[in-house]
Every structure is written in C-alpha cells, then in structure tokens.
Records
---
Amino acid sequence: MSDAAMIVAGAIACLGLAGAGSAFGTGLAAAAAVGAWKKCYAAGKPAPFLLLSFVGAPITQTLYGMILMFIMLGKTEVAGAGIPCLVAGIFAGLAIGLSALFQGRAGAAACDAQAETNQGFTNYLAALGIVETVAIFAMVFALIALSSVK
C-alpha cells in the first residue's frame, strides 16, 4: 500500500470513528430525551427544550475528526507519512469517537435528571464538557504529532 493510500485510509478512519461515536452518542441522548419528554407529558409538566443541548453535545466530535482528516489529507505528498497518518487516524479517531459515545451516555442521564427535577442544568453541561475534553486533547495531541511528519 502506498503512502498516499495509507494517509487517505487514516483520514477516513479518523472521520469514520469520530462520526460513529457521534452517531452512537447522539442516539443514546436522543432516546433518553424522548423518554424524558414522554414522562413530562404524561405528568402534565412542560417538556424542557433544554434537553436538546444534551442530545447535540456529542456531534462536535465529528468536527474534530474532520479537522484531523483535512490535516492528514494535506500530507499525501510527504514521503513516509503513510504509517504515521494511518496510526494517528485510527487511534485519534477511536479516542474521539469513544468520547462522543460516553458523552452521549452522560447526556442521557442528564436528560432524565433535568426533566425530573428541572434543576442542575449547568452542572450537567459541565460534566459533558469534561467528557468532551478527552476528544479535544486527542485531536490536539494528534495534531502536534502530525506536525512532526514533514
């Protein structure tokens, strides 16, 4: 496999793994939001629109994967960049995707808690932000590693 092919494979893997994590995470949080809204409607309480912020939180990880993808695709003319880009794409994409998955799980719990108590919104967002930080770290550290590939 040529360097360019490995670079493209790494770029696609990074975006695919990050995007898969976002899909799982948003799906988990969305299902919890729907369930929480149903409970509110059944109890005659207003359904909190704020739950959509928990549902949408894991989508940003797809953007982090896309940023790395574009950086990797910019290395297709660099001799010897294939293996570093492939490895970075797989492992950074995995870290980013898992961050989205677990952010969705935390978002699901936040949906339930917010709908039931109508309290704690800022605390729940802070917890989701901490989980998001894992993805940001993975992206930044991968960018630093990829900057040495010249």
---
Amino acid sequence: MMIEELTYLTSAEELRPPYLPPSTLMRAKQLDRLDRHCCNFISRAPLVIIGSSHPERGHDVSPRGDAPGFVHIFDPRHLAIPDRPGNNRLDTIENLLVNSAIGLLFIIPGIEELLRVNGTARLTRSEPFLQSMSVDGKSPKLAIVVTVAEAFLHCTKALKRSRLWKDDYRLDRAALPSLGQMISDQTTPASLSVKDIEARIDADARENLY
C-alpha cells in the first residue's frame, strides 16, 4: 500500500470507538506528586528520556544517563537532572527556556515497568548545587529542575512486546555501519575520513564523559 492510499482520523469521535475506556484503576494511578514508589524508581534508574518542544522547531526527545541516583529528588514535587556533556546542540535546553513543559520517562534495565513524569522545568546554574552533583570532580554545566504535575507507573506491554531485556532481538553491532560511517554518509565531510570521525567520537567519549 502507498502512503497516498491511507485515510486519516480527523476527530476525537473517530478515535475512541476501537478502544476500551481506561479502567478506574488506570485513572487513579496518576499522581500529582512523587510518592515513595516513584522516588524509589527514580533513585534506581540510570536513564531518563526527556521530551520537550519549541514553538518553531517542534518536538524533541533526548536521553540523559548516569549511575543510578543521578537524578536528585528535592521533595515530592521537585527533582533535578544534571546536564552532563553531550553533542552541544542544546536542543532540550533551548526548548525549555522557551516552553517549560517537560515529559520524562525513567527506565531501569531489566525492569519492564516505566515511570512517566510530566511537569514544568527551570534551568539553574547555582554553583553549590551543581558541585553536589559532581562526578570525578567535574560539575554539570547546569541542572534541569522539574516541578512535577503528573507521575504514574507505565504498564509493561510495550517492553514485553519489544522483549527489550531479552536477547531475542539483540543485534550484533557489526550488523549496522559504525556511527562514524553513518555520519560520514549523512554529511559527506570533504576534509574528514570515516577513520577521522570515529577517532573524534572515541576521544570525545573518553575525555568528555563528565
């Protein structure tokens, strides 16, 4: 089938009929704060996916990862995520300056449940706080402070279907081109070989992890 042959939904009335209504339990599990289970989940999660948006650039999703406990919990309504070195595009950070709405998805390897947190974000460079988030003597350049509006545990179906923590769909790295090769193909840099690009990627990962 070609994309031109597809039909599309245009109203909420068309959307709901194939789906069962969410159960009372599914509605009740949505909290307006972090309870002890949410805090425990966050404290054990080495990875959080951040969703943000910009009125001109659209939506963006970006990962943040570190040792479990890297996300600081102030209280049931506030948490903070250190901004470690990345690709320096600053897409997420710039989005949050314009539109404070933020969505978080916390992931723990081996656990099929996920934790979703939605709220608003502010950016801080308060030095004493950043120093408290240091690793190997290196502080993050800033931290994303989130005011929690919604928090709820996400069911396991997506991870069960994807078998993410199983070996069924695990791919040998050699089955894909290297990152250097893919970037070279996408950008066709005149002065850099694939070997040069891969050397830069490797050096950045070694020297600028924190």
